[in-house]
Specification:
- The chain is an alpha+beta fold.
- It has one domain.
- The chain contains 2 helices and 2 strands, in the order ααββ.
- A two-stranded antiparallel sheet has the order 1-2.
- β1 and β2 form a beta hairpin.
- α1 runs antiparallel to α2.
- It is rod-shaped.
């Protein structure tokens, strides 16, 4: 059985954009459109998860009262 490779953020976005383009064309039958929509929703959830994780990791540098830079969570 073939093992599924986990996509990175950029690959996930590219796949999602491709699905959107296919759906916007309107050439798919109803069953295929529903399958593509479901796949797109799953990819959208993955993108949201990537962004949430990235946001948790982001810190900003702020100049403290003493003039030194300090890290603060975003």
């Amino acid at each position: 059985m073939e093992e599924k490779k986990e996509l990175n953020f950029e690959e996930t976005m590219q796949k999602l954009e491709k699905i959107v383009q296919e759906l916007e064309k309107g050439d798919l039958n109803l069953d295929d459109s529903i399958k593509k929509f479901e796949e797109g929703m799953n990819l959208s959830k993955s993108v949201s998860n990537y962004l949430e994780e990235a946001e948790k990791k982001i810190t900003i540098l702020v100049k403290g009262e003493d003039g030194n830079l300090e890290e603060q969570e975003f």
